[in-house]
Each structure stands twice: as C-alpha cells, then as structure tokens.
Amino acid sequence: MEVVNTIGRRKSAVARVYVSEGKGKVTINKRDLAEYFPTGILQYVVLQPLHLLGVAEQYDITATLDGGGIKGQAEAMRLAITRALMEINPESRPELKHAGFVTRDPREVERKKPGRPKARKRFQFSKR
What we know:
Layout: E1 4-10, E2 13-21, E3 26-28, E4 31-32, H1 33-36, H2 40-53, E5 59-66, H3 70-88, H4 93-99
Parallel strand pairs: 3-5
Antiparallel strand pairs: 1-2, 2-5, 3-4
Helix pairs in contact: 2-3
C-alpha cells in the first residue's frame, strides 16, 4: 500500500495527514501524539475513527498541523484521518458517517463589525 494523503479542516486549523501501513505510530509535526496533545480527551478525539473501525494498530500516521487551537487541530486531524480511511476502504464510509466523522463542521468565527466592540455586542444604549 502506498501513502494516502488527505486534508481536514476545523475552524482555522488545517491538518495534512499521511497514512501508511505500519504498527500504529502517530507523529504530529515531528512530535509524538502524547507529546503534542497532552490531554487524553484530545488523543481520544484524534484516534476515534481508527478505534471505531478497529484498525488503530495497522496504520502509521504522520501529520502536519497548522493554525487554530488544540481542539480545532484535533478535530481537523480526525476529519483528515476519516477521509484517509475512506480512501483506503470505501466500505467503511457508512460506519464513519453514522458516527458523524465524515461531515466537516462549517462553524467559523464571525468577523468583528465596525463601530461595535465584538461581532454582535453593542455599546450600552443611552437615551439621554
């Protein structure tokens, strides 16, 4: 099997993931998964599609993450891994879709409007 290359996005985070056959090693920006994502919840989020299909020990994953915060990066990486797994095995798509991993979350930060303190907040109204 050759290397499968996919991209995942979430908020302003972008994850480029390279999946190849291996023993389950996950490297992010030349660092280990546990070192890059120190909390167990974020490690769990990243590996969710692999555990769902039961193939966590079959593939080595190398990723480059850019932009956003750690939560957005973890979810972007989850989407990229899901897309790679669907490319490797198209029959796994219904299972991944049912779990909600296939859909790209479209929510982005709303821009700040001129003359206001934030995107929707207004300065206090004074009648007199």
